[in-house]
Amino acid sequence: MAKPNVQQIRFLEDLKLFVIEVMSSFDIWSKQQLTSLSYVKLGVLRKNATQRHGVTRWKRGVKAPKHIHEVDVVDLHPRLLFEDWKPYAAWVLHHEFVHALGYFAHDSAFRTLEQLWPSKKSSKMGSKFTEMLRREKATWLWVCPKCKKEFPRQKQGNGRYMCKTCKCALDDVPMTASQ
Ligand SMILES: [Zn+2]
Ligand SMILES: [Zn+2]
């Protein structure tokens, strides 16, 4: 949805080449499919998106997409486009490329193809990425007075939330720049 800047475009192009190269080693996708992936336009999500880390958007008016030529753009979260998150960015782009190749639902056929991605560790970075986005947006930390576990949130909890482990109400601590 947002417009990528020059660095983001460069990062996305590198990432695309890398993902296609890895996919070419699976012996599942034809040369033609891999070539059409290389023409898929990449963009970025709005930076305040937290739920989605990547999305495949279809061309306007396409109701039941069947073909990769009906892909409008694949958008990735802009915070993914840094070296530290590259393994996860590659995993997300691969996920979107499986959609682009005609697998729309997260069904078992989709999951089988998704799992061909060789780095299992990358998929597990997703929850860390979500946590990082949450922390960046948070203005309050809900802190357990007993075990000190922190829950970054946008609103105060006002004593309404409990630590599941310790069964005591969480304290509201304002976020500061240092956190
Ligand atoms: Zn998906
Ligand atoms: Zn606790």
Provide a descriptive summary of the structure in words.
The protein is an alpha+beta fold and 179 residues long. The chain has two domains: 6-125, Zincin-like (2-Layer Sandwich); 138-174, no CATH class. Helix content is 36%, strand content 15%. The strands form two sheets. The protein has a three-stranded mixed sheet with strand order 1-3-2. It has a three-stranded antiparallel sheet with strand order 5-4-6. A hairpin with a 6-residue loop joins strand 4 (140-143) and strand 5 (150-153). Helix 1 crosses helix 3 (86-100). Bound molecules: zinc ion (2 copies). One zinc ion is lined by residues 95, 99, 106.
Nutshell version of this structure?
This protein is 36% helix and 15% strand. It has 179 residues and is an alpha+beta fold.
